Known about the structure:
Elements: H1 2-30, E1 34-36, H2 48-54, E2 57-71, E3 74-88, E4 95-101, E5 103-104, E6 109-111, E7 123-130, E8 139-142, E9 149-153, E10 156-158, H3 165-168, H4 173-181
Parallel strand pairs: 1-6, 4-8
Antiparallel strand pairs: 2-3, 2-7, 3-4, 5-6, 7-8, 7-9, 9-10
Amino acid sequence: MIQTVKARAFTITVLTMAVLVAVGIYLSFIAPKQLEMGLSVDHAYTSVDEMKKAADLIVEGTALSQKTVDYEGVLFTTSVLQVDQVLKGKLKEKEIAVLETGGFDGKNHLTMEENRVMDPSRRYILFLEKYKGPVAKDAYVITGAYQGKFAVDGHRVEAPKQVSPKIETIDSKQALIQHISK
Length: 182
């Protein structure tokens, strides 16, 4: 009886250790990780009003698809955004391209100050400026690199990471739209 219990305990211990080692290997070497790109913004916005003034366009919409490109050693992601509502500016198109620094390189999520690029099929309120540069044509960039990107979940919004406390505390869609409407 005691021998059977010891044998089962030994077997369970060995199997548990094997599973833990396998999980550790997966998490350490195989699973995608979030890696910081080492870039920072040149201007930290302190309020929604400040971002609103800098933005050419403020929209609410859903990210549909993404294309990632390496330009001179830096990863960029262009997302197609289906625009449902224009909160500032004028827009004829229902879909626009939004260029962000970072993305998924096939192995890791490259981020800027802990902020990942938009997730396809997720809704956002974006403060946008027209992009001028060699990486993409007819595209917009997010005001403050990532600071003007609010993920929408029903009536709630999630402010980006590493923003000013005034912006970080906005957690409802209604409150954000009220700030924009001022």
